[in-house]
Amino acid sequence: MLIYILRRVLYSIPLLLIATFGVFLMVSETFDASAYLAQNRSPETRAAFIEKNNLDEPVVNRYGDWLVDAVQGNFGETYRSSEPVMDEVRPAFWNTIQIVGWGILISAFVAVSIGVYSAVRQYSISDYLLTGLAFVGIALPPFWFGLIAYHFATELAGWVNGGEPVLYGLGLHSAGKDGLNLDYARHLVLPVMTLTVQIIASWSRFQRSSMLDVLSSDYIRTARAKGVSRPKVILKHGLRNGLIPLVTIIALDVGALFGGLVVTEVVFSIPGMGRLFVDALNNGEANIVLAWLLIAAFGIILFNLLADIAYSILDPRIRLS
Amino acid sequence: MRSERALYLRLFALICALALVLAACGGDDDDDDTAGGTDDTTADEDVPAGGELVVGAEQEPDCTAWIKSCGGSSWGYWMMGVTTMPRAFDTIPDGDGWAVVANTDLLTGEPEVDDTNPDKPVHTYSINPDAVWSDSTPITCDDFAFTWDAIVNGEDIYDPTGYTEIETVDCPDANTVVVTFARPYSGWKALFGSGFGVHPKHILEGQDIAEAMGNGYDWSGGPWIIESWNKGVEVILVPNDAFWGTKPKLERVIFKVQADTAAEFQAFQNREVSMIYPQPQLDVVDQIEGGLEGAQSSFSDSTGNLEAVWMNNAAPPLDDVDVRKAIAYAIDRDAIVAQLFGALGVDAPMQTLNPPILSEFADTEAWSDYVLDLDMVDELMTGAGWAKNGSDIWEKDGETASFTLKSTAGNARRELTGQILQEQLANAGFELTLDYQEAGALFGEQLPQGDFQLAVYAQVLTAITVGQCNLMCTKNIPTAENEFSGQNWTRTSVAEMDPLLEELETTLDETRQAELGKQIDQMQAEAQVSLPLDPLPNILIWSDDVLGPVSDNPVLGPFHNLNLLGVAS
């Protein structure tokens, strides 16, 4: 398995080189980092900015410089504030990890529960209802759902707390607070709900479909015929195999979530990776975009690997080579 | 049977829950006690001490080194610059307009101006001996001299304009600053005032200012001190105990960063923030029209903003003054402004290319003759040799009067403006194509390089400084020769106006400044160099819990007097 992992990592290096160069080229050629200095500033200011950041150098040279530094762990500085790029990326990454982490945990638990329940009670009223809700959930755009949920939270505050907020929609903590506490939980509910509503809806459909396949298998019937109780058959024999396709989906979605968090992060004012990416792109901050890309790519590769490994653990017939 | 009944009960409960959600999402029955006019103060109330005020901030700065290029952020300056940096001048209401006067916290009175040598005026500032930094070190002339030196000789400076006109800053004693200008400079009151303020020499000397101040700083010469700046999240200010003027009443002020306007309003309604200062976008106007419970608001059209249809005077057929005039007569500006801001009580278009805060130095009726008049359009276009073709579009020498209007993408207000202009110009025989661009490309490349015909955007003045030579003088037209470095993007070139613009920059006599400003406005209107639209009103909204004289200031921003505000206990 170690060789398999090493091979996967090595394969990803040329891919990363091509991706980073492509992105560097596109960002540099499309977004002018000095443009914000063009209005109401002296021309000298803009010229000095361009010189300081080597923006007048050919893009290949600039990429080369970046690459040499990057392999040594130095991702450069931001153009505007001359801060180390990682000082911007690190807190954003941590904020996103929190949202994604809670989102994945809650989504997986709820989606698996709904999927299993729907499969076990196939074609029942509850199955139809959950199926309908799943389609509604899939159709809900996060930017709309987020604001509606926020509005609902405000109404809720009016009903139960005299107008004082029950759930918060600004950031992950109240001013000057931190840590895992009730304040944190009250800040998490709305963004995590916004992030997970579509995920739960789609994952529950995968889980239902997968469970239906498994539950109609011969070995399940055999287990039942041998007198194993229905809950044990479903949870021990059915669920373990029924989880395999969902594990792959989850692993792939985690990577995609890094980029798809923009809306949730903007609506709930969470300075995470999605917001960082959009701001960096708009500001022509190629160094931040590249660091973001590397982290996102690393995340995708890592979670693909984890999916493969989890696959082999869940299904011993699968061997990685 | 039992399980089926339970199922239906659960189904019923779910439907009830959904109905509740929909009810919550539906009508808004909030009582509307939002002021529709310009109620801007609750000044006479007894403001209690203590408590904290949470403010929604739409933006934050890249850095807080105000003199550096990264520090040029209005929000950054309003939140942390105005509240912590000592400044020599304040902008205060003066009749219907605004005036720049000495800040009596820092200076003992108005500077003395000695123009015995009219080519090199000498300005003498007298510093209030009580003025101290937060570490109790007195604010002295050395700090003024240090600030000037850092701006003039520093690298990566935001904008040294004006400071480069200073020849020397001398310190006969600690509390006297003698500033000698190399030539008369009409914008001298913007120096050491709004924007950069005065920097502490004893703290910053020998340091890289970008590094020492970039991520916030733990010193202050204003009523507040920065307790923390968590980027992307919040800025926290606490009172500066050493401040010698009116001390803050609040225990702390928290600015919560929220870039999304819709969510910002929601945060206000959820009582997470008590004050917001949104940009005048359409959805903001809609929200205010819809009503905000327990809130007050102030709309001000006396701003430093001016939005206009800027015309590239060098791009055919706009190089023909008659065509420019015909376009001006084809546009119903009253209708546009009423559509955009009528709900806020702002329904009259600007009649000068100076922003409202410079009205004293402008002819505020210069463009008033340019009203919708299709007969005048026909007369001007026909006189210029144009005739309408089969499609009812003006045509001359095989070329139709077709234009492209550029503006910034993603701005619903400007998109609506473009659509109205398109319709109005079509009625007059002009074909208009709309082209929305990313701001960086528009301001960074296309406008400087003259790659446009018409453009809608705002010029924003951050200090009351007269003169538009940078925008209107022929010498400031960007060209390939000067590497497109000038800021006269409209390629305005009116030979008889240039000397007046240059004189205005070097005239210290305010009466003469006003005369020149009015003359220039009239010349611009006569040449119809561009078409002023609206003043982009400022909108300030605060909860009833906020007490004190809440007010907006077009230069210092909405938080200029935070030290006077409090919150209901």
Walk me through what this model shows.
- The complex is a heterodimer of chains A (321) and B (569).
- With 321 residues, chain A is mostly helical.
- Chain A has a domain at 86-283: Orthogonal Bundle (MetI-like fold).
- Chain A has 12 helices and no strands.
- In chain A, α4 (85-120) runs parallel beside α12 (286-314), α6 crosses α7 and α11 packs antiparallel against α12 (286-314).
- The termini of chain A are close together.
- Chain B has a domain at 305-534: Dipeptide-binding Protein, domain 3, CATH 3.10.105.
- Chain B has helices spanning 2-25, 74-84, 141-153, 201-204, 209-213, 261-269, 282-290, 321-330, 333-341, 374-383, 412-427, 439-446, 469-472, 498-506, 510-527; strands spanning 52-57, 89-94, 97-102, 112-114, 122-126, 166-173, 176-181, 224-230, 234-239, 252-257, 275-276, 295-300, 305-311, 387-388, 394-396, 399-400, 402-408, 431-437, 454-460, 530-534, 538-543, 546-547, 566-567.
- A 5-stranded mixed beta sheet of chain B has the order 18-17-19-13-20. Chain B has a 4-stranded mixed beta sheet with strand order 1-10-9-8, sandwiched between helices.
- At the A-B interface, α2, α4, α5 and α6 of A face α1, β1, β10, α6 and α12 of B.
Write the layout of secondary structure elements.
The complex is a heterodimer of chains A (321) and B (569).
Chain A: H1 2-30, H2 43-52, H3 59-71, H4 85-120, H5 125-139, H6 142-160, H7 182-215, H8 218-225, H9 230-260, H10 262-267, H11 273-282, H12 286-314
Helix pairs in contact in A: 1-12, 4-5, 4-7, 4-9, 4-11, 4-12, 5-7, 6-7, 7-9, 9-12, 11-12
Chain B: H1 2-25, E1 52-57, H2 74-84, E2 89-94, E3 97-102, E4 112-114, E5 122-126, H3 141-153, E6 166-173, E7 176-181, H4 201-204, H5 209-213, E8 224-230, E9 234-239, E10 252-257, H6 261-269, E11 275-276, H7 282-290, E12 295-300, E13 305-311, H8 321-330, H9 333-341, H10 374-383, E14 387-388, E15 394-396, E16 399-400, E17 402-408, H11 412-427, E18 431-437, H12 439-446, E19 454-460, H13 469-472, H14 498-506, H15 510-527, E20 530-534, E21 538-543, E22 546-547, E23 566-567
Parallel strand pairs in B: 1-10, 17-18, 17-19
Antiparallel strand pairs in B: 2-3, 4-5, 5-7, 6-7, 8-9, 9-10, 11-21, 12-21, 13-19, 13-20, 14-15, 15-16, 22-23
Helix pairs in contact in B: 8-10, 14-15
